[in-house]
């Protein structure tokens, strides 16, 4: 079992990450929360401090697309927590697919945010954890990264790149005692998915997904679909031959 | 829509056209969502004060952040969707308790303010609004109003007990009460009739901060108003009971008929009246003492698909004895009623809100399974007794009071109406102001 006592949370203002932080501090962990929106980060940290007055709860404002700031973020986390034993990468945006189709620049920026910025962080984190010979890294990818489809392939491609990259890091760090967890949530009811019709049964609450992430991190799982039934759905989706898939409207 | 939030008594079953869950501390635009808006916390009232037929239901459960807690002074600031249960989980271990708590801890702070809830300690402490140091209100036109007893005080008095009609309460600061222990020391005493109740009540209220009585609502004749009185206080630090582990049960399905009927009720009441009491006192953990029903999740389902009505009235002190006796007589003759019949006297700490229910006198609260017209006609008969006594009914516990009862019980309702946000309403408000 991995200990989650000193947790670095990147993208701490996301709905899932806020629930993660609450559950972690409730179990006695200390957290270092990184996010771009200062006001929101402050509100979340204030809430966490009331819930867990004994815990170390620190925050750091940073735009995660500034790849050259990543080292500073990790150094600050180290100092604030006295070294961290686990890291969660939870930041991201949901691109407007149609707008991306009309703009190479927008597409590039979305892939930076959802793909490259994650890869930059992972490159640094992998080295740090490798030196320590222990720990767990978790990244929120998506079921969208399992297969490209017309309604969201810019997002899917970025998440797919992250999922593949994580497979490599997992392989590299396995012998070093570091677990690498790829979280693939399905539909989650958060501000990111505000404009969707959420009446179907497939929608999950952020705190449910957060619970699944913590469990997966403690157990050192590999690729995890949350909620679990998405494994079955994506098995089918992934198995459809391309000749057929290209005709579908999913 | 196929599934929509309802109130605890599951009546009336009315559906909004849309549901909006606030993530930001503001109301959505009235241009984008169907009017009117009705504000819904956690659905623990027995009433349509938080429901709308055809408008937009505004849910506050995601406004669930704490803002600040001062553990020296016991001042807590939080958003309005935070539940009393979440507050207690944090503050009790630090030696603080809610100054006033209703019978469920799953109500939200916003709901507690909007209904100006009261508890077993009203006779010494007053109601919830008394401990709200300030609150932030936001209106449909975007206006934000910070109000308190001293700042924008007329807005404060309109919003406390204001049934969610003056605006969305986004956050509040409340004053907690110091405790030494999560345990309570409780004495229970049996009384054989209403005369004994009044004597026992006078005697115990002087010494005990928390008092409430269970009443056998089917007892007749010389036994009218027999029951058991519970007097409690927060225990000192060294008093503890056995280790408390919360065991919760669920009622897993909605039953087709009510489990509460004239047979089961009669049998239950006979047994309950005779159960052993503890006049010498014993320790209870605060959770089963204050929130015995919270342990049975979805207990409202035992009343079956038709739901149930709760009826809570307050009768002025000069006529309490007479009116309570008449009310209990009418209920016993009807053979309708429930296990949860509660009688208590309110004290004279004045309530803060224009529409606040708690006022000096005696308050009686019961559930009635919804048997259709039989139930409505009994409640109409009870209305006449309450009205003749100059009493009032509690909006948070009401799904049917006629407009006349409301206006009589809350004579400054027109003053209050000036503060109602034009974009907000509720099925209750429409019903009582038509």
What's the short version?
Chain A is α/β, with parallel strands linked by helices. Chain A is built from nine helices and seven strands; from the N terminus they run E-H-E-H-E-H-E-H-H-E-H-E-H-E-H-H. Helices cover 49% and strands 15% of the residues of chain A.
Low confidence ranges of chain B: none
* Average pLDDT level of chain A: 96
> Count of DSSP helices of chain B?
12
Q: pLDDT below 50 for ≥5 consecutive residues: which ranges of chain A?
A: none
Percentage of residues in helical conformation of chain A: 40-55%
How would you classify the quaternary structure? heterodimer
Overall pLDDT confidence of chain B: 92
The secondary structure category of chain A is: alpha/beta
User: Largest interface by residue count?
Assistant: A-B, 9 and 13 residues
| Main β-sheet description of chain B | 8 strands, antiparallel
What is the overall number of helices of chain A? Answer: 9
Strand line-up of the largest beta sheet of chain B: 14-10-12-11-17-18-16-19
Strand content of chain A: 15-25%
Q: What profile does the largest beta sheet of chain A have? A: 7 strands, parallel
Helix content of chain B: 10-25%
From N to C, what is the helix and strand string of chain A?
Answer: EHEHEHEHHEHEHEHH
Radius of gyration of chain B, rounded?
21 Å
The span between the termini of chain A is 38 Å
Strand order within the widest beta sheet of chain A: 3-2-1-4-5-6-7
**Secondary structure: number of strands of chain A:** 7
